[in-house]
């Protein structure tokens, strides 16, 4: 039972011990003592414990934020709006405009824009919401009835169950908790709006000084990294708001013109919904297109409904391939899978408002990773490996070469030997 013996065992050595640098005894003494955590399973267990601790801390932070949404929601929105109007503040200050006057002017412009958008939404949607909802519901019923005529392994009971599940989620407190907890009731809305205006005023006026105060504990490389992350955050949030608002306006105007030409009713409410839902990437455009197609199906028939679907697809393709890259560049260069995961997590945690804020927050996190070790140097674990960037082009080259070789073989020619790029 030597494994459980407390007293150390003694050994007898016939030859004298050599304690030089090459001696086995010296080498053994230089090694770290054996530990249960030193092998592969021990390292895995250590990483698992660290991951569990990180998850617990993140969950505590999220729960804490959810308890004070009346403060956190205005704080985040004020930060985003201040980042969006930072170029305007910088332009006025460079021309000698006093800080207070520049701040008040910018703040009034933001309040006027937000009030105008809110009034437009209420005017365009509220009075015709019942009719819009009724036509969308009738269009959905017709679409379900048409799918029922197809030979699909789906019965009406399954469709009703799916519709009931989606309806229950959309009308549940969980879906609207993020938006309703902070701005749902009138009192909370007024409180949140006042906090938003006050925070936005100080962010616009004293934002650089506030950020410099927060950076005081950092030194050396940590200070430089914090400065890079702050600059990247402001650039990302500002570009996101300005680019998304412009894209949403262009989408809404384009679809409005198309709906008016096709004489689809409720064109203005549908265009307004297109503008609002454009702030939810991927999912928002899909939902807006479905609503427009359902209304056109009921009022104008399936031919016009198909034309509306084509119009929505065309506008979205023009936006994604031309307008969005010009306005946003690589600011929001996120994979569609990452966007969908972020939207799902944001919706579950904070409802509609979480879906709106999930993508810019994710873009900020990714932007911080991209400048972690330098202006153009990502964190070590996020750097591409040598040859990784050309892997896709190499695979496409090989596919084209196989097709060319197959064509030459059919003509009786010998394949051409060529090195890959």
pLDDT averaged over residues: 77
Uncertain residue ranges: 1-5, 173-184
Radius of gyration: 30 Å
Q: What fraction, in percent, of the residue positions are helical?
A: over 70%
Global outline: globular
Structural class: mainly alpha
What is the string of helix and strand elements?
HHHHHHHHHHHHHHH
Query: What's the number of helices?
Result: 15
Number of strands: 0
- Main pleated sheet: none
Beta strand %: under 5%
Distance between the termini: 64 Å
Give a topology summary.
Blueprint lengths: L23 H7 L9 H28 L1 H16 L1 H9 L4 H28 L2 H20 L7 H15 L2 H11 L2 H29 L5 H43 L4 H11 L5 H18 L1 H27 L7 H35 L20 H20 L11
Helix pairs in contact: 3-8, 3-9, 3-10, 4-5, 5-9, 5-11, 6-12, 8-14, 10-11, 10-13, 10-14, 11-12, 12-13
Descriptive labels:
15 helices; 421 residues; mainly alpha; globular
What does this structure look like?
- This protein is mainly α and 421 residues long.
- The protein is built from 15 helices and no strands.
- It has helices at 24-30, 40-67, 69-84, 86-94, 99-126, 129-148, 156-170, 173-183, 186-214, 220-262, 267-277, 283-300, 302-328, 336-370, 391-410.
- Helix 3 (69-84) crosses helix 9 and helix 4 (86-94) packs antiparallel against helix 5 (99-126).
- The longest helix has 43 residues, at 220-262.
- It is globular and about 65 Å long.
């Amino acid at each position: 039972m030597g494994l459980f013996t407390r007293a150390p065992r003694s050994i007898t050595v016939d030859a004298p011990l050599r304690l030089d640098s090459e001696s086995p005894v010296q080498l053994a003494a230089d090694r770290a003592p054996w530990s249960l955590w030193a092998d592969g399973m021990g390292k895995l267990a250590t990483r698992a414990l660290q991951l569990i601790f990180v998850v617990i801390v993140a969950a505590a932070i999220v729960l804490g934020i959810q308890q004070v949404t009346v403060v956190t929601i205005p704080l985040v929105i004020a930060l985003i709006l201040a980042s969006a109007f930072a170029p305007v503040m910088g332009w006025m200050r460079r021309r000698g405009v006093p800080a207070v006057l520049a701040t008040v002017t910018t703040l009034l412009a933001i309040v006027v824009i937000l009030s105008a958008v809110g009034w437009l939404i209420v005017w365009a949607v509220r009075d015709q919401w019942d009719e819009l909802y009724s036509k969308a519901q009738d269009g959905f019923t017709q679409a379900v009835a048409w799918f029922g005529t197809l030979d699909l392994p789906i019965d009406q009971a399954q469709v009703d169950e799916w519709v009931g599940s989606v309806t229950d989620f959309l009308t549940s407190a969980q879906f609207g908790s993020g938006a309703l907890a902070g701005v749902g009731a009138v009192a909370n809305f007024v409180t949140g709006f006042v906090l938003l205006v006050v925070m936005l005023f100080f962010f616009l006026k004293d934002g650089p000084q506030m950020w410099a105060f927060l950076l005081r504990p950092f030194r050396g490389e940590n200070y430089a990294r914090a400065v890079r992350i702050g600059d990247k955050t402001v650039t990302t949030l500002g570009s996101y708001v300005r680019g998304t608002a412009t894209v949403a306006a262009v989408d809404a105007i384009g679809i409005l013109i198309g709906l008016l030409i096709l004489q689809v009713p409720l064109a203005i409410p549908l265009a307004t919904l297109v503008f609002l839902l454009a702030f939810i990437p991927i999912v928002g455009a899909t939902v807006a297109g479905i609503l427009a197609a359902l209304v056109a199906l009921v009022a104008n028939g399936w031919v016009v409904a198909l034309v509306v679907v084509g119009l929505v697809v065309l506008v979205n393709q023009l936006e994604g391939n031309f307008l969005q890259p010009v306005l946003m560049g690589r600011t929001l260069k996120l994979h569609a899978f990452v966007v969908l995961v972020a939207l799902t997590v944001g919706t579950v945690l904070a409802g509609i408002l979480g879906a709106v804020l999930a993508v810019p927050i994710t873009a900020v996190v990714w932007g911080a990773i991209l400048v972690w070790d330098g202006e153009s140097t990502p964190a070590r674990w996020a750097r591409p490996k040598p040859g990784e960037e050309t892997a896709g082009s190499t695979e496409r080259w090989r596919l084209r070469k196989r097709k060319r070789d197959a064509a030459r073989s059919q003509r009786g020619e010998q394949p051409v030997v060529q090195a890959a790029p």
